Amino acid sequence: MLSVMLGEAWHAMGCNRLRTALTMLGMVIGVGSVVLMMAIGQGAQYAVAQTISTMGSNLYVIIAGWTQQAGVRSGGGYGFTLRLGDADAIEELDGVSLVAPAHQGTQQVVYGSKNWSSVIVGTTPAYLEARAWSVASGYGMDDSDVRSATRVALVGKTVVESLFEADEEPLGKTIRIRNTPFTIIGTLAPKGQNLDGRDQDDTIIVPLTTAQRKVFGVPFAGSIRQIVVQAESNEAMPAVEKSVTALLRQRHRLRADQDNDFYIRNLAAAADSAAETTRVMSLLLGAIASVSLLVGGIGIMNIMLVSVTERTREIGVRMAIGARQKDILAQFLLEAIMISITGCLIGLALGIGSALAVNALTDMVIVISGSAVLVAFVVAAGVGVFFGFYPARKAAALDPIEALRYQ
Amino acid sequence: MRVDAEDNVIRVARLTKTYETAAGPFPALRGVDLDIRRGEYVAIMGPSGSGKSTFMNLLGCLDTPSSGEYALVGRNVAHLPGDELAALRNRTIGFVFQGFNLLPRMTLEDNVALPLVYAHVEREERRRRAREMLARVGLEGYARSLPARISGGQQQRVAIARALINGPRLILADEPTGNLDSHTSEEIMTFFRELNDEGITIVLVTHEADIAAHAERQVRFLDGLIVSDRPTPRMEMPTC
Ligand SMILES: Nc1ncnc2c1ncn2[C@@H]1O[C@H](COP(=O)(O)OP(=O)(O)OP(=O)(O)O)[C@@H](O)[C@H]1O
Ligand SMILES: [Mg+2]
């Protein structure tokens, strides 16, 4: 029985090809856009999660601000309110696992005849640890490099690619930053973009002391621009933020009516909000695409209603020769489901195809998950049942005599 | 209702049908009594609007009466649920319509086999029986043709094949020759004659006396009542 009905549904679909194709088109576009939008949305979520995992966990970055004198800010850009002593003091606080003072800025780097502009980070070995940044080849720096201000450098992947030929070994080579020669002792493992979209591999890490003396210069000894602080755990973060703030205000002798002369940036919170943003975005994309699925479903209902009217006499004949109401119901329901599933399959192929095309033509990350495909398929079949049911029931409820008389 | 004789294919008593219309209730049948024995060949006649089709629809279990009794092959069917009426239409009754009512997009073979689909007969068996039936009505070469490709008389023969395929006890034909010329009508009537000789009960509505003359009993309707019921006078046979 089912095979006959499938055959008939197939036959009915084939009888008016253009109309069936147009009806299906709604489904095709609906499913296709759901799949594509979900792929893009999940891709964005994946990319953000990937970026967050390269940041290092439970981090605060304290950035130097401005001293306020009689309500007037001194200077522009970075202030110079943080000192090395602040970093040492923070290290003594409860809940703090790592502290790395840092000074960073963009500088021209020269190797042989090649020239590249890169972010230079002067810092201590704790920075690499806090950022979970491993050394791909060679060695990392150690505390003695910082103490004696050696001219050594760790270079990121982008720097290597920009300054060296593909077959050239960067380890042991000497590069010049602001005319100061640095010897490359190690290369950094690649990290990709950060949340702001900056290429983190375009980075050169050097000892803090060397950077301050030879590259950036400082207004007075012991002044630093930022301190990276890692809390022991996510739970410890609010307490650490509080105690760091209190400590710095006390050390900087700020009165109660004065603003902080530093900023604390919670990287974990930034990561959370970035993840939340992409999650909402992908939900939104999916929701918008679902509307087209709905429209596709309404198209199916519309055509099925037309079909029932057109075939009223046929329904009457079928009833007269012994079709039960449920046979008629099943026949039209099956036809609707078949249209929507066929449309769905084409839509899936189209959606996956265009997702792959987007992936190939842009640098957008695309994630096609089996569950998303399955959901799209089930929803489409559901749409077929849902929107096919009303016309099918209408057909089944026809009075056979009226139907036979229908012209 | 007690039914005494299995011999009666149809027993109808005090049957009424009232249609609800915009102008109020309209009594199309006003108390009809009729018994039809197995193997009878009955012609129903009467002016337009006298209730013939209404009566046929009730006999064919396409509709249910407003009141009265109807026993089909010994079974009271006046108030059966829809699915059981469908089963009766499928197995016990064969319909032949004035307008043939073949499904235009199906081959003749599939048209003939359609009742077997609803009787859950296997595909191969359906095909075999449909071809057999087509051969019986003289259309063996046309199994894969579409209804639009053949003449009206041929279409009506296909419709008869469809009516017969599930081995019904009763053939109901509402003006089966209404759309056919007289020559083709005679062919169809000859075919009904053969079927009746094989023992199938036939009830046929017609306006034409020479068609009714093929039946052995003529029932006349007027204004929703039977006004005469008599054997066909056998004085003159159709000229050959
Ligand atoms: N569904 C309906 N609703 C209301 N009135 C109806 C309906 N069906 C039939 N009638 C009325 O019932 C009466 C009998 O109709 P019926 O079709 O049985 O007549 P008939 O004898 O078959 O006529 P004809 O020879 O023209 O086919 C007519 O007056 C008709 O208008
Ligand atoms: Mg009539």
TrEMBL record, chain A:
UniProt main location, coarse: membrane
Entry membrane topology: Multi-pass membrane protein
Domain MacB-like periplasmic core: 20-246
Transmembrane segments: 21-41, 283-308, 328-352, 364-390
UniProt cross-references to InterPro entries, sorted A to Z: ABC3_permease_C, MacB_PCD, Macrolide_Exporter_MacB
One GO cellular component term: plasma membrane
Gene Ontology MF, one: transmembrane transporter activity
ABC3 transporter permease C-terminal domain span: 287-399
Coiled coil: none
Places the protein is found: Cell membrane
Entry superkingdom: Bacteria
Record's keyword terms, sorted: Cell membrane, Membrane, Transmembrane, Transmembrane helix
Protein family membership: Belongs to the ABC-4 integral membrane protein family.
Protein name: Putative ABC transport system permease protein
Organism: Propionivibrio dicarboxylicus
UniProtKB/TrEMBL annotation, chain B:
Coiled coil location: none
Keyword set, alphabetical order: Antibiotic resistance, ATP-binding, Cell membrane, Membrane, Nucleotide-binding, Transmembrane, Transmembrane helix, Transport
UniProt GO BP: response to antibiotic
GO cellular component: membrane protein complex; plasma membrane
Pfam families the UniProt entry points to: ABC_tran
Transmembrane segments: none
Residue intervals of the ABC transporter domain: 10-239
InterPro entries reported for this sequence: AAA+_ATPase, ABC_transporter-like_ATP-bd, ABC_transporter-like_CS, ABC_transpr_LolD-like, MacB-like_ATP-bd, P-loop_NTPase
MF-aspect GO terms: ATP binding; ATP hydrolysis activity; transmembrane transporter activity
KW Ion transport (keyword) present: no
Family: Belongs to the ABC transporter superfamily. Macrolide exporter (TC 3.A.1.122) family.
Matches recorded under PANTHER family: ABC TRANSPORTER ABCH.1 (PTHR24220:SF86), IMPORT ATP-BINDING PROTEIN (PTHR24220)
The protein, known as: Putative ABC transport system ATP-binding protein
